[in-house]
Write a structure and sequence with these properties.
With 87 residues, the protein is mainly beta. It has no helices and 5 strands.
Length: 87
């Protein structure tokens, strides 16, 4: 009796975020639609303090970072709306 083929193992996929904690970035903040009546997106420059909630299975269109401004306040931004700044 022949054995059915065993499942093929593949190497785990590693997704590297295009930004890392500590990167200096410039961009436009993200404001959730339900908060836009009292807050508007704004231009900012700051250092990334958190990279989203994980990257596995997250579409880059929705992936986000948290950025700390020079004032100590933080802003959320979609990765598509930021770019690295010269240090």
């Amino acid at each position: 009796m022949d054995r059915p083929p065993s499942p093929r193992r593949t190497a785990p996929r590693i997704h590297r975020a295009p930004y890392a904690v500590g990167d200096l970035v410039t961009g436009t903040s993200y404001v959730q639609p339900e908060h836009r009546g009292r807050e508007q997106p704004e231009e900012f420059t700051g250092r990334i303090v958190q990279v989203g909630s994980g990257w596995d299975g997250v579409d880059a269109e929705q992936a986000y970072v948290w950025v700390r401004l020079a004032t100590g306040r933080e802003r959320q931004a979609l990765i598509r709306d930021i770019r690295k700044s010269p240090t």
